[in-house]
Structures are given as C-alpha cells and as structure tokens.
C-alpha cells in the first residue's frame, strides 16, 4: 500500500517506521477470518419482530415526528473521489437544560426515522454551555434497559446490545462530588455488567462492574442499581459492558466529569465542548467472534469491518452482498459545526474494542492536546492523535483555518492497521471513518449551517503512524506535563516484574499471559467477595504478606492476585514478549508512567532511580518523578517495556488487563487486591450477593467460552 509506506514527516520526536520495518516483521501468519454463514441469521426473524415492535413503541412515545423522514446519505471521503450525495441535517444547537435527577435521552425530531430510531443525534454529545459547574453535589439518576436490537450503524444490519435501544449510549455528565445512580434492567438475552472506565470507585469497589472481580453478572431478567460518588477526578471517561466482548455490540457511552477548577487547569480557553467517540466496528456479533478468536489454532484476532465516529458511518452496500444492508435510512457521517474564530474542545475517546486509531483533521496540523485520560495537561501540539483502545485525549481546536474557501474539512479516524499482526483489513472493509467539520458564521452567508457543505479537503497529515506507542511515549520524556503538577512518590515499597505475552499452550489454544498466569474470571464468585469472606473468617491464606497472593487463596494459573494490606506504593514493570503493543488498563487508579521503550527494560538507573525504585539516584535530579504523565491505559510496545508507579490506596479488587478485547478476554489480565486490613470489615451489599443467586448457566451467558469447550469437549 502506497499510503502505508509513506513516512511521517516533520515531527522529529516521532519514530516513524515504514511498513517493511524489521521490528514489525511478519512473525505472525495472516489468518483471514473465515466468512461463514453469520450465526445471527437464525435469530434474524425474532429480532426483526422485536425491533419493529420497539420502533413502534418509540413512535407512540414521542408522538410521531414533525417532518418527513429524511432519506439521504453522505459518501465517505477518499483521496481520489469527492462525494456528490446529499447529507442528512445534523442538529448543532444544544439540547434543553439538563434535567438534574433523571435524564432520559429524547431524540431530536428532525432525525427520527422509522428504521433508524436507534441513532443518537449529534447534538446529544455537544455539552450544553448552561451547565452549572458550581451546583451543590447532585444525585444524577439514569434508568437503563439493556436490550437487543437489529440495527445498522454504518448501513449493515446486525444484532446489537444497547442501552434503551439507542446507540451509542447517552452521555453521563456530572460535577466532581456528584453521585451517579444507574438503574440497569437486563432485558437482553445475555448477562451483562457495566464498568465505569477510569472512575476511582473509592470505597465502592463493588460498583466497578467487573464480572468475576467485583460482581456477578446481571443475568437476563434481573436488575441492578449502580450507585457511586465521583470524587477526586474530572475529565473524559466512558462506560462499557464488561461481560465477554459485549462492549463491541453497542454497550458503550461517554462520561464527562467537570471539576470546579476545569477552566483553570485547561490552559487553553474554549467556547464549546463536545465528545467525539471513535471505535472499530464489526458486522458480526461479538459472541461468535469471541469463540472464533479463542478456538484451537486461532493465532490472530478477529479484524473489524470498519470504523465509526459517534456511532455512525456509511458503507457502500454493494461491498456486502451477503448482508442485509441499507445505507439510506439515516446512515450518515457525523458533522461538527464549529463557530468560526472560536475555540472548541473535542474530547476524543477510543471507545472501541481492538483497534488503535489515528485521528487527524485536514488542514489543521497542530492540534493542541490538553487532556490525557482525565488528566489535564499543558498543551502539546500534535499533528495527529494516536489513540489506543480505552484512551482519551482532548484537543482545543481554534477555528482559524481560513485558507480553505468553503471552511469544510474532513475529520479522519483511521484504524492503525500496523497495530494488528495482519497489517490490513479484509478487502472490502474500509479502515477509516470520517466526520465533517464545518466552520459556521451567522454573519457570513457562505458559512451558514448547511447540510450540503461537504468537505473537499485531502488527507494532509503526512503519513500514517506505524509504531503503536502512547503519544506521551512518542515524545521526549516530560514533554507532556500534567496540570496541576503532581509529584510521584520517591520510593516504591515493592517492584513487580511481569512477562507479558500471547502464548500457545495445550490443545493449540492461544491465550494472554502475565508470567505463567492466564486470567479467567470466576463469574459465580467474584474475587472481592471471596477475599472479604476469607479475611472475615480469619482464613490465613488470605492474610499473607504483601505480594503475589497465596496459591491456597487464588489459583495462580488463572487468577494472579497482587495483594497489599495497607496503602503502598508499587512499581509494575511489564516486559512484552509479543510483537504487538498492548494497552493495559488498571481499574480504579491513575498510574504514573515512569518510562517506556523498545527492547529490554534498561534498569531503574537509566531514568535516574535507585534499583527497585527505592528513591532518586541523584537527590538533586527528580526528573523521573517530578510530574510524570498519569493515565489509566498505558501501552507496552511490541517487544518493549513499560514501568508504572501506582499508589494502591483504593480498597478492593482491581482488574488490570489488556484493553484490546480479544487479548483481555483471552486471559491477559490480573487483579490487584488492596488494603486487605480494611477489607475485612467490609460487607458486600445484599443486592450484589443476590446477583450471584442466578444459575451458573445464566451468569455465563455472553461470557468468553471456557477452555473446556475444546479441551474436554465430550464432558459437556
Ligand atoms: C450506499 O450503497 C449503495 C449500494 O446499495 C451505493 O451505490 C452507494 O454509493 C452507497 N452510499 C455511500 C455513501 O457509500
Ligand atoms: C481513597 O480513599 C482513601 C481513604 O479511605 C484515601 O486514603 C485515598 O487516598 C483515596 N484514593 C483516591 C484515589 O482517591
Ligand atoms: C490557529 O490557532 C492555533 C492554535 O491556537 C495556532 O497555533 C495557529 O497558529 C493559528 N493559525 C492561524 C492561521 O492563525
Ligand atoms: C514473573 O516472572 C519473572 C521471571 O520470569 C520473575 O522474576 C518475577 O518475579 C515474576 N513476577 C511475579 C509478580 O511473580
Ligand atoms: C481458606 O480459603 C481457601 C480458598 O477459598 C480454602 O480452600 C480453604 O479451605 C480455606 N481454609 C479454611 C481453614 O477455611
Ligand atoms: C536528570 O536525570 C535524567 C534521567 O537520568 C537525565 O536524563 C537528565 O539529564 C538529568 N538532568 C540533569 C540536570 O542532570
Ligand atoms: C449471547 O451469548 C452467547 C455466548 O454465551 C453468544 O454466542 C451469543 O451470540 C450472544 N447473543 C447475544 C444476542 O448477545
Ligand atoms: Cu493486548
């Protein structure tokens, strides 16, 4: 591919490699995913009936629509062709004032269409400027019904799992100090659980939504009330389903937490604020893909069929002759109408399951990055953003590019195929999603909000990034500076080293490993509850010295648990023996990123610390710990290393796992068990315990298939 062999120009700090780079040699064979008869055909009729019933219900509820249904589409941009079709209108004005205690998403009327009522209007992700940042602590309550629908975000129909029949999920917006209540009723066919990605859940570990670690899944027909207070953090987050790979089926949505100091810590002022979700998109349900990914002999992950921005894209239905596809009823490219001359905060979230994204905006090649994973940072100019799954970056964009006459630009979100062993998607699949960015100016007749203003810009960001590192790692150390500065502790109490790998063991099963451990969630008995029960009953196996927990308490081959009795400072060093990068997510914490690089971990001395992290080498040089980047998803480059320092002050069981979903569900994970001295006094609420009363077969609905499916096939 010509585009893949171009070099990234300009930025001296970028280590751009060409596609023939040795370090990314073809160690792994290409295993194209077999294109079998999609499993969902069987359920098609059932879901079609369900979906029509649902849309009927919705129409009744909103009292019909004001105007005729819009039947038009937009063509995706490509380097060689300019779209000619007419786009659908996109609302720019923000919605009515925030309802404080209960929020129910109501679709804007122009966009209601008989077959497309699942679509979320663009305006839902534009933050209403009338927000009260100084409101007293507020309880914000949401009522969510988890349900399966048949829907076609990009034109191709598939079975989805959604919240209230909408995709993507509604924005949760709150101030620091607010309490979030989410009443979840599971009317879907599989079990579910909702995880609040990046939220500390300090004191409410049992609300973290992690099956096998902090809760039993919510079985079909059951309900659960999530309730937690958002404390000590602000910025951009998201929620996603955490049972199996359900996050790929539609169980996702953004969270924005406002701090009272937001305007102070965001060093670039901005006039508008919005969320931009990017994600990979599969035309098959995750259930089948997960089984395929974990089957004997499978050494590669299912590749996405494309990408979405804010849940939307338009594919050419001719490319999918075997699929039910309709790209006319509301399939669209999202549009961001930005007032000319003003500044706009764009909160990018890679809400997808597997793909890294390179995001760029044509004609805007110095994007000031002002937030990393919820942490405000002093602006750093980037030409493009490289966002791993689970990561977030804010950009403050000034609409000052006046050399393009029509002031319309393509925003591109491109799957970084170099982060896959396969380098490429299947032939008909497009690795890029696009959105329209238009400047508006009510005093200039050429810059009216007009759906017909389609960009004609070409991709001009240079070339594509092919080394899958975090953006802070790509820059010289300390280029990114959190605001306000926060010094990492000087001394680590413990330093743990892990080998990170995908390995093929018995029965030709490839699984994710941390040392000799490949994580399997115990869906019937969460680790937190076992730990509390064990500690309460004085079972000595749970009351062991800090470090790897006793094998008598947790089976190390499937549950590697690193336990600490009290608040400690720990270092985690990951040495990646796999050729792919792994974005590792730690629940409930921000990690100080002390270093990261290619090859073997070079030792603490190389970045100015004493062995085992016990203090500074030179007391007058604290550059390693003065103000490191903090984040909740940190990547370990292929055949590289990463070291993070974590203050384990948050009581409970915290999952640490690769956020590339096929790796995470394939076992690349472990648990941190913190503050056991306090945990022994905890009582798990009855509502949590009640979820575990469902039968094993119900709790396992939608979970990753067990290895025994293949290793003891005849027992089942
Ligand atoms: C929608 O699909 C049709 C084929 O059914 C194709 O001709 C058209 O170009 C597609 N639209 C876009 C915007 O790709
Ligand atoms: C969590 O709360 C404890 C008090 O129980 C406090 O010591 C700790 O610093 C808090 N951690 C975070 C991340 O807020
Ligand atoms: C537009 O604004 C950006 C960021 O504020 C600035 O770096 C850039 O120089 C400006 N460009 C023009 C053409 O004024
Ligand atoms: C992981 O294995 C390495 C040896 O390969 C060992 O040095 C290290 O201590 C192990 N880590 C843990 C947490 O057991
Ligand atoms: C302690 O807990 C372990 C793991 O649950 C269990 O196997 C063991 O029997 C318990 N020991 C006692 C004395 O209860
Ligand atoms: C401080 O230590 C870092 C890491 O070892 C090193 O790169 C830097 O040059 C040192 N700075 C000074 C002023 O010595
Ligand atoms: C439900 O889960 C099973 C695996 O347990 C999976 O095969 C199936 O695709 C899932 N269906 C839905 C609609 O989630
Ligand atoms: Cu991974």
UniProtKB/TrEMBL annotation:
Record Gene3D superfamilies: Cupredoxins - blue copper proteins (2.60.40.420)
Sequence ranges assigned to domain Plastocyanin-like in this UniProt record: 146-261, 274-440, 550-676
Transmembrane segments: 43-64
Compositional bias of kind Basic and acidic residues: 19-31
Stretches for region Disordered: 1-31
Family assignment from sequence similarity: Belongs to the multicopper oxidase family.
Name the UniProt record assigns to this protein: Multicopper oxidase
Taxonomic lineage: Eukaryota, Fungi, Dikarya, Ascomycota, Pezizomycotina
